[in-house]
Write a structure and sequence with these properties.
Blueprint lengths: L11 E6 L4 H4 L17 H17 L3 E4 H9 L2 H12 L5 H13 L3 H10 L1 E2 L12 H6 L5 E3 L8 H4 E4 L2 E4 L8 H13 L7 E4 L11 E5 L2 E6 L5 H14 L4 E6 L13 E5 L2 E4 L1 H4 L3 E7 L6 E8 H8 L6 E4 L4 H9 L6 E4 L2 E5 L3 H9 L3 E5 L16 E5 L6
Parallel strand pairs: 1-2, 6-7, 9-10, 12-15, 17-18
Antiparallel strand pairs: 1-19, 3-4, 5-6, 8-9, 10-13, 11-12, 13-14, 16-17
Helix pairs in contact: 3-6, 3-9, 4-9
Length: 404
């Protein structure tokens, strides 16, 4: 199977999603902050909304793959099972005795059961502990509501843990401790699942912090990388070196963004909806700058120019006279509200065709007036983790060349 992505808007062929499951039911008012959710989602409704999202993609001819299904199939490979089990057991907080009990528990599970534990976690009371199998000091001192293995509710946002650039995949390095195990699963899928045999990598989780929500493929050969709360300048530099060495791009725009929850990734303030059009949060559009990075003449050092206004630098790199800009909302207050509700975070299925949350009424109207068809989906529960349609999707296949 050939997987290839070189733009944000070329017709989408295959996408990776994760249908929310029991990991969301693990969220409580006591742990939702540490697990990076702003509210406690209604799991059943979130699943209904996600199913409607997947159905909308399929109705436009997109192949939908589910991360959970791929994980179960990956765990049927002995080396993958051993590796993922070992990674969980390395946790320093388990201690010797509890580590042995967890190892015994996981050994009894079939691939589907193990996949459930790796995504939804293992609660204190779910571990088989008895008089003949004591849990040790760590187990004894744990609160009954604690997790022996933490759940991964943010697995819903498949965009962040991997990004395809050309025919190579970058498995990213997630900044927040609550999310780092996500890339362990994603990395194993790409290395062991039969569908991805022979896949070459352009980034690995052991490298500097870089998240997929900060990487925009503006056009074939042109990437924008946001640096802020999640992606570090060192991560952007590392990606640039890796991409240039592989011949996957000629220009990378590094875009500083505010280190705030509302603007955690570049795609929370800017996404592409056509080959020459971006949807942007108007309150920051004029302030955004970019540093243009190209490979140095000696093949090692990078050449960095700028800063320059982002829109100007992007148009120049994309060989356009200018980029069309569609504003989020119609006024500063509406723009701020709809940006918070992921109004900027659209997923392009093709040029001038995108998926957005229905709640962002003014933004969707702006898009329609600009000639962009919007497939509006419900997201009242899905959005509780601060992510829209782009965050929830990792394109694996788009038509080459950035056109329809």
């Amino acid at each position: 199977m050939t997987h290839y992505v070189d733009s944000e808007v070329a017709r989408l062929g295959t996408v990776l999603l994760h249908r929310p499951g029991p990991e969301l039911a693990r969220l409580t008012p006591r742990n939702n902050d540490s697990l990076l959710f702003d509210a406690i989602p209604w799991v059943g409704r979130a699943q209904e909304e996600h199913d409607a999202f997947a159905a909308a993609l399929r109705s436009r001819g997109v192949e939908v793959l589910y991360l959970a299904d791929l994980l179960v199939e990956t765990l049927a490979v002995a080396d993958a099972r051993a590796e993922l089990t070992d990674r969980v057991l390395r946790s320093r907080r388990l201690g010797h005795t509890l580590r042995r009990r967890v190892a015994d528990h996981l050994a009894y599970l079939d691939p589907a059961g193990l996949a459930d534990v790796l995504t939804a976690g293992l609660a204190h009371e779910e571990l088989r502990i008895g008089a003949d199998r004591p849990g040790g000091l760590v187990w004894t001192l744990m609160d009954r509501h604690d997790f022996v293995i933490d759940p991964l509710p943010n697995l819903l946002f498949t965009r962040d843990s991997s990004v395809w650039i050309g025919d190579r995949v970058g498995v990213t390095s997630l900044a927040m401790p609550a999310r780092r195990r996500e890339t362990t699963l994603t990395d194993a899928i790409y290395r062991y699942h039969p569908r991805f045999v022979g896949t070459e990598f352009v980034y690995h989780p052991r490298l500097e912090h870089l998240e997929g929500g900060d990487v925009l493929l503006l056009a074939p050969g042109v990437l924008a990388v946001g640096v802020g709360e999640r992606t570090t300048p060192a991560g952007a530099e590392r990606l640039a070196r890796q991409v240039f060495a592989a011949g996957l791009a000629h220009t990378i725009l590094v875009v500083p963004i505010a280190q705030e929850r509302a603007t955690m990734h570049l795609d929370t303030i800017c996404t592409m909806v056509d080959v020459d059009a971006v949807l942007m949060y108007a309150n920051v559009a004029d302030q955004m700058s970019a540093y243009t990075v190209i490979a140095g003449a000696d093949g090692d050092d990078l050449r960095v120019d700028g800063p320059a206004p982002f829109l100007r630098a992007a148009a120049d790199a994309m060989d356009l006279d200018q980029l069309r800009v569609i504003d989020t909302g119609l006024d500063p207050v509406t723009a701020e509200r709809e940006q918070w509700d992921d109004g900027n975070n659209t997923l392009a299925i093709a040029p001038r065709l995108c998926v957005g949350y229905e709640r962002n009424v003014e933004t969707n109207a702006q898009l329609e007036r600009a000639g962009i068809e919007v497939i509006a989906i419900a997201g009242s529960e899905l959005g509780s983790g601060r992510g829209g349609p782009r965050c929830m999707s990792c394109p694996l296949v788009r038509e080459k060349g950035g056109t329809a």
